[in-house]
Amino acid sequence: MHLTQLRFQNLRCFKLASFAPSVGLNFLQGPNGAGKTTVLEAMYLLSHGRSFRSGGQRALIRSGQSGYRLRAQVSQASGQIFDVGLLCAESRQKAFINELPISQLSKLLHRCVVVCFEPGSHVLISGPGDIRRHFLDWGLFHVEPTFLDVSRQYRRSLAHRNALLRSHGEDREMRVWEAVMSENADHLDTWRENYLHELEPYTQKIAFELIPELGVCMLKYRRGWKTGTPLFDCLRDQRSQDQRLGYTRPGAHRADWRMCFATIKERNEFSRGQEKLISLIMLLAQAALHTDLLAEPVILCVDDLNSELDPVHRHRLIQYLRGIHVQVFWTGTERPVDLPDEACVFHVEHQEIIPEQPRLG
Length: 361
Known about the structure:
This protein is of the alpha/beta class and 361 residues long. It is built from twelve helices and 14 strands. α5 packs across α7.
């Protein structure tokens, strides 16, 4: 898929902006504070329903306004074209497809799939487990038709068990919710482990292209409860301890994964630069897996490429991106010396996105 048109209103510093990107490489150039990241943020909102930056929905709205509006045309590999939109007013979101309101935001998120690498992406490796679970779950949301329902049922049963733990509820009711938790946790656990297994050859291939100096990489999955024991039994055995704590410890909500290399085994041994590169590799691998599973390329965004990667790794990344035939957006304050000739350049300045005129001769 790729965007043929993007338009947004009252999003951060922009009163009204629109542009028509190319289907290949797009470079957004402008000074700090001009709004380059906001352009990527607009695409990300249509794909995730939230920003990759902190601050919540209110922080996205232009000062003095009550809401923002996004609209894009998405062309899919099948040839279908969808008009997708997102309206936020008074911190409430409304989604649209082909100008018709839709009741479930998830239907919009399936239509526009954006993977974004930005300055905070290193927390995928260095941050807490919930970030890595979300990474897996976002991928599963797109490839497993019943994932969303199963995930919601699991969270609901977990919330009920936690409430019963705090109120010292009846054992009979506790067992009912523990059974629901266990059934749905088994599905989540199987999907997550299989998804990570499918990701591994993609990460190995991309890691070999971007950071061959670290050697072969491997992905390791941890389920979130005792191996070889059904979750229902773990919940029963640890109920009294969980009651003292007031929350549930074992379960699919404690699952995690890690990436290790032949030369580096533990994540606390990675430098900050290596964390960024490894996070980037995971995002690129997820994009490649999505493309192969659904026969539909994702849209790739890379924010502030020059400052996030050193020249050697940046050049390797650009060569990789040139070979995968997807729509790419990246930002920078200055034009990279190794910017491919086929890239389309847009200048972001004075709340406008201005295409650079092709050079003559």
